[in-house]
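Example 3.
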Amino acid sequence: MDTVMLSRIQFAVTAGFHFIFVPLTLGLSLLVAFMETKYVRTGNEVYLDMSKFWGKLFLINFALGVVTGITLEFQFGMNWAEYSKYVGDIFGAPLAIEATLAFFLESTFIGLWIFGRDRVSKQLHAASIWIVAVAANLSALWILLANGWMQKPVGYLLRNGRAEMVDFWALVTNSYGWSKFFHTVVAGYVVAAFFVMGISAYHLLRKNKSSFFKESFRMAASFGLISSILVFITGDFHAVEVATTQPTKFAAMESVWESQKAAPYHLLVIPDPSAQRNTVEAISIPKALSLLAYHDGNAEVKGLKDFPQDLRPPVTLTFSSFRSMAALGMLFMLLSFIAWLLGRKDHLESYPIFLKVMLYTIPLPYIANQIGWIVAEVGRQPWIVYGLLKTSDAASKAVSVEQVMGSLIGFTLLYGFLAVVDIYLLAKNARKGPDLEPSIIMNPAAGAGSKEA
Amino acid sequence: MEFQIIWFILWAVLWAVYFMLDGFDLGVGILHRYIGRNEDERGAILSSIGPVWDGNEVWLLTAGGATFAAFPTTYALMFSYLYTALLLILFSLIVRGVSLELRGKEESATWRRNWGYALVTSSFLPALLFGVAFGNIFQGLPMDADGYHGNLLTLLNPYGLLTGIFFLFLFLMHGALWIGFRTKGYVSDQASRLANKIWYPLLLIAVAFLVMTKFATKLYLNFINTPIFFIVPLIAVAALLTMKVCLAKQSSIQAFAASCVTILMVTFTGVIGLFPSLIPSSIDPRYSLTIFNSSSSPYTLKIMTIVALIFVPIVIVYQSWNYIIFNKKIDHEDKKQGSKY
């Protein structure tokens, strides 16, 4: 294997690992902020306990998200020096802005939130987790504007042997970046919602601190329902963006080989890339693919055969990732709707089978997030910047195969170890449940019964 | 003023502030096991940096991001040339962050001890390696039209190692002084005693560094051409001497302030000597990476200047405010203090 392939694998491993933690941070910071705000508003200590318990799980996850994020900033230079030289004039800016605008805020106020409970007022303490949540999402915006530029390069000129920024406003208002931002953050909220619902379901099945976990579940269910609907809507808009700006990616996502007007959507497709066709195309909905691609049932969808073979992304991986992600997205809407309904009518404990389903569903939104990135990044190949620079021309020249092999092994071992520690700590703390405030233990009416404490 | 020069100054400030802030985190990380006698005391020591270390580290990420945005060619070549050294720093920073945040997540003494050892190692390595990296940058890297002609071992040359040890001792001192003024009783006394001991070797290493710099690098040329700049290393030396005076007066907060000045001025001394290079070539000056041949376009630099001039002061305000909120001395006998770390 050459340094390009090894560097790609390393980037996939490190970015994918980082993105185990990011979605939960995006969503859970908001949920905890809601909880703490509710406590400040009502004075009801159940919400204080909720913010502490979910906050502890949040912090374990947050710590890993922060440290694995550093890797990415280093890697652009270490492994992708040619890329960094060629596009640094425009790509470096959003990264530097992210650090200055968002990351400073996030990291300073998380310190205040962890250590400040006895030092600052309740209001300020709640405000600090809000700032963390907003900063985390702001951070996502700048990173996705940077990534959006790689998908749809705008506001630049090729000059002095590189891409130079000529229009910062175009970068900031890049529709691809924004549609990707909305889709990505709400997908993160779904992860958090299912995380909270799943762990709450675990305790509800054991009749442990029921009122605490019922309330947690209910809050997460509403959050999950809204978020999963938003994932669908933003996903729909994002698909149009992709079809318009990255026709090869869209064709690979749907495994379309021949260009076609008023293209139908096939529910069942088995691609055969070597024969440049699909072995199976069944259960078709007329015009649906054109509608999906351009919000116009008669529009023409470009097929892969319209593009030279060396400019097409890997079809099977892009296609199957996209299909699975879309199917999971539907499932999340369905499940969170049921969860919301049962929670609202206080019927949760009457359906232990549903609670069990919710418990085992925890990993699915994580998987949906990961394969979403596979669609985005594998689907962009062979380009690192769509239409502008190929991945094969972007890797560092000064780095040897041995070096990248060594670092890849190092990352795999270190990250493997961190994954074990993370899962161990999360599982242990999630199972243990909250330490309730004495007032609630004494007064069963206010919260969980005393026998549970 | 040209934007390249503004960004050179900002670049220097970001690094200097990073070393001034994370320097004591790294020092505390290395020293916490030796100053604290048991895991509770060690937890109390670490909780003194708990609310601030993460924010301090962002100065590094911003320095990195600023290098990328303002001097992309330097960013690309520096990071790929120094691949293995940076990988070691990166792994250390990952382990450091995780150790700090997860150490207090379990009651067990074994758990806390093991993360403590991980923290010592992962604080020691960056403290040393940042110095090695900068020592080599001061000297220049062997690079020409064909790229880079070095490896990890060529970085470990005498001057690189000396600079590494210099940084290590600066940060050890900085960490000991921080613990001294942020804690009470035994822990504080112990830290101040240690600072007193570290001062002598630090002075010796600093002198060796200043002398070796004359022979191993071209840093002093800019100073000879513009003698007014000599004031910067002079302040560094004065601050280093003041440190000892403050320690003798048992004012660890003043000594810490002096240590901050020392670190800032040492960084500025190196950077002034580098100007206008970011990384000189030790083979042929034509291949040096300078702020003029490796910078972004004037348009990008202008945008980034506006962003920096608005937001960096805001960052300084809220970070300072955060330090003020947590200015209460930490009592290691108060069990609650150590409980989070």
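Chain A touches chain B through 69 residues (CB under 8 Å). The longest helix of chain A spans residues 3-42.
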